[in-house]
## 1
Amino acid sequence: MGYLFDPQNWEWVTTGNNLRFLLEGFLVNLQIAVIAIVLSLAVGLLLALARLSRLKPLSLVAGVWVDVWRNLPLIFIILYLALALPAPWKDFYESIVPSFFPEALQSGRVFAGILGLVLYNSAVIAEIMRSGILSLDRGQGEAAASLGLSRTQQLRYVILPQGLRRMVPATVSQLITLNKDTTLVSIIAIQEVMRHGRILSSGFGAFTGSDVETPVLQVFIVIGLLFVLTNLALSRLSRRLEVRERKRTGGTAGPVMGVEDQTALALEAR
Amino acid sequence: MAELWEVLTEHFPELSSGFWVTVRLVAVSFVIAMAVGTAVAALRIAPAKPLNWVGGVFVELFRNTPLLVLLFISFAGLRRAGLPVNAWAAGTASLGLYTAAYVAEALRSGVFAVGKGQIEASLSLGLDYPRTMRYVILPQAFRTVIPHLGSLIIAMIKNSAIIGVSLLALDDLLHQARLVNSRTFQTDETFFWAAVGYLLLTGLTTLAVRRLEDRYAIHR
């Protein structure tokens, strides 16, 4: 306990460039998160639609694809891709990545990280979206059909807006998980906040600008708090959206608990 | 194809020992998660504001911190602070407490689903608060949230892979696959069998939870 509350150790965190170094790393995490969130939502929607498609082979393939990726550990996927991704793919990434991106995102390894995050999260999000769409009353689609809307129009104007809106809380809780999971790319040596924390922990006195031995505990507590803050902000935002939505429509969204992942599994079972 | 089988037959001992380490990790962590999660849920719904607050802080802290950060805090961090933690204790405690926050949230929603009426009825029958929880509310709450607990176990199986890779002192399935790969360079084959291991675990758990659900779950 003495170690934890020793003011010297906390002071260390703000000594020299230490805190700045951590924040720079955290910024890389946020950037990876934003890229992965945008791609996962887009791919997730496509996968959900493919699964609901009337083309049997398409929905079957999409179903197997989704079930495989969402049941594998994300860290497994990232590690495998880092080892097995063909070099041309990484080169391709390096050639298209905008030059204003930070240096940590320029490396081809980042592609393996982002691809892993997207493969996993798009599968989970596809399940969430699909169960949202399935939870809609059949009558909605039928009514739209009887009004003369084509299948595409039904989806575009009637089913998707309602089905997806219902699943906003579950989707946000998955995005919070995604935000946390960006730390996993540190395993494949991408220079983000965990790596920066470890560099500080290896404790070169000259580098950290202090002669106190690096307080590893405090460094990682600070990193943890950075994530707590951003994730709380995200969940506040989603709660506010939900409340506004309820006021506007007067409807009740499905009850959502902050259960990680696979909220879909539970909703499906209902 | 031949190589695929070769990798399995040649490295079966390593991979299967990793598989069982993963199973044990998840089992121990699950016990921790259930015990702590139930306690935290009880705090969150207790009829005393400060207790609610303590429970709420626990949930928000552990739910919003990446598991990897928890692992670093509990292993490298505590060691530097002078506590001789071993990898098993750090790994299972991190995964257990991380999941406990989700268990607490699930249970709390289960208790709400049981409803205030039953709490009031039981209190008015003369049961005190702990007994009301123990005999009336929690048994129903657990049965209501079986599907959620199931998906949490599946999440735990997947999250357990982070432990071996980050602490490097625990030879779970993914870590063993990595070791085999570094010796053989047969990446595709090795990771294929590790994937089979994980899918087997998550798949079997899904089936088992479905059975439990069919028998015991209360649908509201």
## 2
Amino acid sequence: MEAAPRSEPAPLLRVEDLWVRFPGRMGVVEAVRGVGFTVGREKLGIVGESGSGKTVTGRAILRLVLPPGLVTARRLVFDGQDLLALNEAAMRGIRGRRISMVMQDPKFSLNPVMTVGSQVAEAYRMHADASLEEARRRTLEMLAAVKIRDPERVYRLYPHEVSGGMGQRVMIAMMLIPGPDLLIADEPTSALDVTVQMQVLAILDDLVTQQGMGLVFVSHDLNLVASFCDRILVMYAGRIVETCRASELQQARHPYTRGLLQSLPRVDRPVAELPVLQRDPAWQDAVMTFP
Amino acid sequence: MIRPAIGDQRAGEVMPLSSGRPRHAWRAWLLTETPGSRAQARLGQAYVAWLGFRRNPLAMAGLTILVVLVLVAVLAPVLTHQSPVSQELGRRLQPPSAAYWFGTDELGRDIYTRILYGSRITLLIVGLVVVSVAPVGLLIGTVAGYMGGAVDVVLMRMTDVFLAFPRLILALAFVSALGPGIENAVIAIACTAWPPYARVARAETLTIRNSDFIAAVRLQGAGPLRIVLGHVVPLCTSSLIVRVGYDMAGIILTAAGLGFLGLGAQPPSPEWGAMISSGRKFLLDQWWVATIPGAAILVVSLGFNLLGDGIRDVLDPKQG
């Protein structure tokens, strides 16, 4: 189990011993196994390979794991409220308004028969008691804020008419417009090219530093996370195998993290053949503790 | 750029639509590959769909029948100067002739006139049933599909109960409980017609409910009501429209059946089913009294069926 960082007196979100299980025909699949971490008003990166439980962790915090998935945790506390004890109506007040999540694939995360603008405006009106005109104005502002040129035109487009990167920025606008305290961003920049990626990251960075939003940034891009986030969790097979400050990632000690780092190509040190990550079955079960 | 005079010498990319025949400007405007505005693109899409529809001769026949039916219903007072209900016993049971195109019935009423006015009743019943049934079926189906669990079981078993009875028998039971009359016939037919709509809507909802955009609105904090009405219902409507097109013929037949059994429209009103019923007694000697309204029912329900087929070919999202 990881201890809370010393510098953070009252974390926004505290997760202890979170398990997500999916009972299946062949037995129970444990997607997340005893994960614990805290998020303050900071940028927390979660990295790991596909299937390591990053996305499911994010969904479990919002209690949106689809049945038959089961979520249990010793503690899942957001801003003093126990998320596991809230009823569904109270949970709806949390989702979007307090905790928001940007999902991986914008193409499937936008309703194909509604215009982009009306979906963002709906996200705003769901929580704020605003008139249509007000929602429209705020939506245009938000679209402009995520660097969409000509928001008036994009407002009227349908999801199939926007590019992947534009769709992802629309998703980000949609999730940011209610002004959440905590944003879970599930690979929010994977469909964007590098320049737009930097712009979107700058927007997120602004929100964290200026408005004190907490950010959980799920990604598999180690370098990006290392340069953008404050702290990094490394997940493997449903467990957190290592936690470190982003600046200290290069000094990571867990063999899995070391393996990940070594399998990245480097411009300054070209090698003929990149090492392939060698997995050790012992990682799956051992709870790693570092003195 | 010289336009070739001979049809099969294509002008290539510059004039993609040009063949030998001269084209109307509006047609080129509709079929352009580079529409200038959203409205133009949408009209072009509709026009292409219409072209597909027009290529189907049976669907066109159905459409023609329906257009004629609507015109007849609207223009009935112009097309005939007789009254559909006034009796004149001196000319009862006349065979078809130049004066009485479809003959007269046992009370001396002109059957041609009665057929014309009867089309109004038929359209009224079909319209009312469709308007009342589609929303009910849509709502029950989407709610059942979205909520799942116990709600789904209860709603769908209810649907199964309604589906378990033959349509006409169930409608008969409802009418005999409510009392005869056009309004009650409409209510009875509506009560028996919604289950297939609920089934279709539920099946659509089941595929939609697990999609990512529903998860996205859920994680914004949307409640079930907002999701079902705002995000699921609009996606189900196209399948439902196709289903409505199919169902209209069945509704007409059920309405005529109720009329025939004396439980639909009541005697003086020129309902086709009721006309067959009263003409039944003279079928062997005065065949036209029962046969003409029967032919009207046949033609109209055939028209609805053909049109429904054509609409499905054009609209069905599953066929791309």
